[in-house]
Amino acid sequence: MSVPSHGTRRWPSRVYGEGDEPDARFSLANERTFLAWLRTAMALMAAGVGIETVNAATSSSQNPLVTWLALLLLAGGVLVSAASFTRWAATERALRTGRPLPAPRMGAVLGYGLAAVGVGIAVLLVIVGI
Amino acid sequence: MPDHHTGDERARAPVDPGLQIERTTLAWLRTGLSFAVGSLVLTRLIAHTRPLVALGCVLALLPVAVLVGVLAVRRYRADSALPQHRQPLADGALPAGVALLAVLVGAVGMVYTVLL
To answer: Is the predicted pLDDT of residue A87 greater than 60, yes or no?
Structure first.
């Protein structure tokens, strides 16, 4: 496979400093996976802002539990955003060096985390009626 | 990649078989659009009660958003100027910029949640 000539050095050098240029399709798929994670993060953050807005609009005194849940969702969104970039970099590096891809840890965290959030919302619905 | 095209077919073959670059560009557009809409809604919500805080949030988000836009246009130009069958120019700057923007949007969301 021919290595393309680049006029400028590519950043970060931790990713592009070693290995060979992978099949462009793999790099592009890695990029799309990164973007899909970012949209997931955006959905988490939108959920947080959404439930807090409803919380403020429907009751005269806001329920602090809902506010905490909103903050938890927003923190999850921030975490997923940051982790998605480091994962993109680790995957691109693995593609270049021919090593195995990094383990998908975010999926497990997000899956269990959302399950916990779902249980929390259910409890809130039953106990406080939100 | 094995090439099964015969001469005449190859002349009419798409530049981007599998439309990988096109799919990736569309993913960038979807993501960018969702962030644009999300941050607009968020700042509008904050401006409803705290106009000054909303202004501060816009001032924090705007430089990063402009940076991401500039990087995206630059990458699009570089990729579309590539001769056929060459690798697209990928770089970590645009992904890092968008991830930073996402983190900032989350921080603004937290500001909204705490202040509301």
So the answer is: yes
What ipTM describes this predicted complex? 0.89
Residue B102, number of CB atoms within 10 A of its CB: 28
Task: Provide CB contacts within 8 A for B88, sequence distance 6+.
Answer: A24, A27, A28, B21, B78, B79, B82
Query: What does the alpha-carbon distance between residue B93 and residue B35 come to, in Å, rounded to a whole number?
Result: 17
Model pTM? Answer: 0.87
Q: Say if the Cβ atoms of A53 and B45 lie within 8 Å.
A: yes
Chain A residues within an 8 Å CB radius of B20: 24-25, 28-29
**Closest Cβ–Cβ partner in A16, A38, A67 for B113:** A67
Instruction: Spell out which residues of chain A touch residue B97, defining contact as CB-CB under 8 Å.
Output: none
Question: What are the sequence ranges of the domains in chain A?
Answer: 21-126
